[in-house]
Amino acid sequence: MNTTELLYAYAVTQDAGDLGEALETVTGVAGEPVRAVRQAGLAALAGPVPAAGFDEAALRASLEDLGWLERTARAHQRVVDAAAAAAPCVLPLRLATVYRDEDGLRRMLTERGQHLRAALGRLDGRCEWGVKVYTLPPRAAPAGPSAGAPPAPVRSGRDYLRRRAAERTTRREEEQRVDEAARTLHATLATLAEDTRLYPPQNPRLSRQPGRNVLNAAYLVPREQGPRFTDAVARLAEAAPADGVGVELTGPWAPYSFVTPAPP
Amino acid sequence: MTPDPVPPAGRIALVDLLDRLLAGGVVVAGDLTLSIAGVDLVRVDLRLLVGAVAATLPAAPGKELPP
């Protein structure tokens, strides 16, 4: 066993034979060449990485380094994308899946073969699209009879309390409207998708979005129906600002979010 | 004129990538595997920052938005 190198695995596909060309030009998380390790009718895409950077202790430390995380995640995604361009279906592996050697990777393919083949069959010809809904900054001129007029002077404690209560009501109504808009949008898109997943709202520190993230969803869509789905998103995005929200589309992604079937 | 909501290729936001790479993807466990699931990734700071380590929720249309 080579103790100075480990094998970083990116994705699993059917062993269809012609992946070599697609992988020729792509490099992995350590700048290494990526090859297909074939076993049990499956091909795992993997590349040798230095043990010093990818053993358990190193990973524990690195995973807390956002710079490392970004470089590694982007490299991982590059390999998945290259494979997705050449294979009908690619199952991405979770970030930082590392084997001691090729035997370990082959053993995984044998042991998990049935599960992996089932997932490849289920996801064949499907893409994932991501849709996020954010609140937009409050509009400059609030609607209502007093729009544009300066607020009436506060004459008493009762005036003050009344105004505070009205502000609270407005805020609550605004939030309800936004949540309702996100719910309706999700329901509409779900009818165009075979499956959906909801992610937790994104942290604004990472997303750099000023608004509140009220929907962070993934949709599984047959590849040939992609245009229908993205057209629907574009129409919803056009109408969304009227409800105080903005819509963001990402994709097409390899089906990261759907590798595990939804529980019944 | 509504701008195309699809971002230009190659400009994937890190946060979207991390959602998928830390909470999605196949988790293969085994005695020779070190994966994020087994590494008990993250101390509190990264978990707060990324917000994606929690398992994704299954979704049925229309009634299960996060509160």
Automatic annotation (TrEMBL), chain A:
GO CC annotation terms, alphabetical: gas vesicle
Keyword Membrane: no
InterPro entries (UniProt xref): GvpL/GvpF (IPR009430)
Major subcellular site: other
Location(s), subcellular: Gas vesicle
Superkingdom, taxonomy of origin: Bacteria
Keywords, comma-separated and alphabetical: Gas vesicle
Family the entry assigns: Belongs to the gas vesicle GvpF/GvpL family.
Protein name (database record): Gas vesicle protein
Top-level taxonomy: Bacteria, Bacillati, Actinomycetota, Actinomycetes, Kitasatosporales
UniProtKB/TrEMBL annotation, chain B:
GO terms, molecular function: structural molecule activity
Compartment(s) of residence: Gas vesicle
Record bears the keyword Ion transport: no
UniProt-listed InterPro entries: Gas-vesicle_GvpA-like, GvpA
UniProt keywords, alphabetically: Gas vesicle
Any Pfam family: Gas_vesicle
Presence of the UniProt keyword Repeat in the record: no
Protein name: Gas vesicle protein GvpA
